[in-house]
């Protein structure tokens, strides 16, 4: 099994591996072009080359940063504000109609508590999944292995270490449930 395959399976892998470095270098080259264009409209073709999927009518504002790109799946009609960072050693999946505030960070990667493993740059990654109609407030951090349920709201400056149920508001460091959202229909909402 290659180091890249180990990474995608959530196993310990060597982040300095040449195959992983080649994928990372390709992403960095595309990101340099994307972030120098200054607008999403001019960069949309490059985003489609970088990401695993970019949904219909989704917008990503520069600057945007990721490690690999091809593990990122973004649904329809999403909006990612400035300075979003995605460490995508595992899949990061955003559903449809997701709003991501400025400076939000997604971390799929982590390291062992054993310093010998860290000296070898061994890393393991777990996916992040964000449901439909989720709003993630600015400066929040979404950590590895987290699933955020549909329609949840993450308050600004939160650190999310565990799964977030649908229809809840969470906030804090670490994030905890602050309230449950009512299941109301809003006729003003565009589908």
Topology:
Blueprint: H1 3-8, E1 13-14, H2 18-37, H3 40-50, E2 53-54, E3 59-60, E4 64-66, E5 72-74, E6 79-80, E7 84-87, E8 92-94, E9 99-100, E10 105-107, E11 109-110, H4 115-119, E12 122-125, E13 128-130, E14 135-136, E15 141-143, E16 147-148, E17 153-154, E18 159-160, E19 168-171, E20 176-180
Explain what this protein looks like in three dimensions.
Pfam families: Hexapep (PF00132), Mac (PF12464). This is Sugar O-acetyltransferase. One of its GO terms (molecular function) is acyltransferase activity. Its EC number is 2.3.1.-. The protein is α/β, with parallel strands linked by helices and 191 residues long. It has one domain (3-180): Hexapeptide repeat proteins (UDP N-Acetylglucosamine Acyltransferase, domain 1, 3 Solenoid), CATH 2.160.10. Helices cover 22% and strands 29% of the residues. The chain has helices at residues 3-8, 18-37, 40-50, 115-119, and strands spanning 13-14, 53-54, 59-60, 64-66, 72-74, 79-80, 84-87, 92-94, 99-100, 105-107, 109-110, 122-125, 128-130, 135-136, 141-143, 147-148, 153-154, 159-160, 168-171, 176-180. A seven-stranded mixed sheet has the order 3-6-9-14-17-19-20, with no helix packed on it. The protein has a five-stranded parallel sheet with strand order 2-5-8-13-16, with no helix packed on it. Strand 19 (168-171) and strand 20 (176-180) form a beta hairpin. Helix 2 packs antiparallel against helix 3 (40-50). The longest helix has 20 residues, at 18-37.
